[in-house]
Every structure is written in C-alpha cells, then in structure tokens.
Amino acid sequence: TGRLHVVATPIGNLEDLSPRALRTLREADLIAAEDTRHTQALLSAFGVRGTLVSLHDHNEAEQIDGLLAKLRDGAQIALVSDAGTPLVSDPGFRLVRAAREAGIEVSPVPGACAAIAALSVAGLPSDRFAFEGFLPQKGAARRERLQSLAAEARTLVFYESSHRIDECLVDAAAIFGATRRGVVARELTKRFETVLDGPLGALAARVAADADQRRGEFVVIVEGATGDDADASLALGRRVHALLREHLP
Ligand code: SAM
Fold first, then answer.
1. What does the mean pLDDT of the chain come to?
2. What is the 3-state secondary structure (H, E, C) of 64-101?
3. Are residues 234 and 240 in contact, defined by beta-carbon separation less than 8 angstroms?
4. Residue 93 CA, ligand 1 centroid: distance in Å
5. Residues 6+ positions from 145 with CB-CB distance below 8 Å
6. Cα-atom radius of gyration of the chain, to the nearest Å?
7. Domain named Tetrapyrrole methylase: which ranges (predicted)?
8. Which ligand 1 atom sits nearest the alpha carbon of residue 81?
9. What's the pLDDT tens digit per position in 84-129?
C-alpha cells in the first residue's frame, strides 16, 4: 500500500541525514521537494537517483490530487523540505492533511529541526515552550506580535533571517525588557555555528556591533515571562487602560 513518508533532512551538516532517511529517499517512487534543485544537490551528495516533483506553498493545492492518486496506486512518496523537518515553517501540511483524510498512512522519518536543535543548547527552560516561527517582516506588525507575547510564561522560539536579526533583537529587548534572557543560535551544525546568550539588551548590542553575527540563519530563543514580568506588564496594561479611560467619552 502507498505511504507518505515525511523525511527530515539536515539543517547544514550532511552527517545529520539519518540512515533511515537515506534509505527512505533511495526507495521512494517519488520525492516531493520544496525546491527540486536544492534536494537534487542533497541526493547527489549521497548518490541517490530519485524522481523529484516540486511541492511548495504556491502549488501545493494543485499538486495534491496527483500525489494522492499515486499514493492510492501504492506509491511510496517521500516529502522533504529544503532543510530540517517538513511542515515546521515549511510546506507540506495540506498534503499531509489530505493524505490523512484519504486514509493513507503517513509516517515520520524524524531528524534535524533548527528550533529543537537550538532549544537543546540554549540552557533556557524547555519543559514548556512556544514555537512562534517567523515574526512578521514589517516593524509595526512585528512589535505587535512581540507585545502579544510579552506575558507568555513559556520559553519562546523564533526563526529569523539575516535581514532582520538586528531589528528583531532590538524590538525584543524593548518589548520584553533588556534584562530578559535570550539566546541567538546561528548557523547550527555549520562551520560558523555560534550560540550567544545573555540579556536581550546585551544580545541586541552584540549583534548590532558585529556584522559577522548577522550572517547566516538564526533561531532566537527568549526566556518566558516570570511572575515579575507578568506583574509589570499587568501594571502597565492597567496604566494604559486608566489613561485611555480619561480620554474616552
Ligand atoms: N523546517 C526547518 C526546520 O526544521 O528547522 C525550518 C525551515 S525555515 C523556512 C528556515 C529557518 O530555520 C531559517 O530562516 C532559520 O531561522 C532556521 N534555520 C534553519 N537552519 C538553521 C541553522 N542551521 N541554524 C540556525 N537556524 C536555522
């Protein structure tokens, strides 16, 4: 019977491709990839000759029917993204949902995930955490999102690109407070891997001062609000509310 295998690939270091992931890719009738050229390079590095089909956010809906038909015919299809675990800030959820609804088996082949890798070395509480993915790109929307998270007690995990890592840290320090602890995990598993930790204010200053610290791919982790933060933010909320009431009819 057909099966959809959701296969994690490395986030930088090719040695992180698991033996099972390699076998699954080798045995798949079809590999649905976010970017076929990117995945072709991965397959070539391992000497795998696979048949690739592209599946990204913009064609996922159109591709689903064809892929489901093949799965119903008994195909073994592997789903991969450019890096890490598919569906984690990556395409695939529509296909997985459609496959499940069609009664097709969906199996994970787990492996690298930047968020989890970063969390595992951050040294921040990880018993409960909230994965927030990418923040909005525009400043006002980003600050609004951060504001909505200011009282969140769980550790917060964000993905960020080199274009906005500096603004992200400046905003996070302003909104969560400069003394709230954070971790900036850059280029994990790659040559220039760096994990910086400290108060958000210091992290923002450090990254602003060093262009090298703005290159590559980032996971930003922020400690959750403690009771003090929550009290402070509640007090602030009350003050804003009181001020607004004075000015409202
Ligand atoms: N599906 C992937 C995963 O499992 O981590 C994430 C895909 S998302 C489109 C790409 C983002 O993940 C990057 O912008 C960066 O925030 C983060 N990322 C990916 N690889 C990374 C690495 N080696 N080091 C730090 N962050 C990374």
1. 94
2. HHHHHHHHHCCCEEEEECCCECCCCCCCCHHHHHHHHH
3. no
4. 17
5. 132, 135, 136
6. 21
7. 3-203
8. 1
9. 999 999 999 999 999 999 999 999 999 999 999 999 999 999 999 9
Mutate to test the pocket of ligand 1, among 13, 80, 89, 157 (most ligand atoms within 8 A of CB): 89
Distance 131 CA to ligand 1 centre (A): 12
Q: State the pLDDT confidence band at 47, using cuts at 50, 70 and 90.
A: very high
Average pLDDT over residues 36-63: 96
User: Cα(221) to centroid of ligand 1, in Å?
Assistant: 13
3-state secondary structure of 15: helix
Q: How far apart are CA 209 and CA 194, in angstroms?
A: 15
Tell the residue nearest (CA) to atom 13 of ligand 1: 217
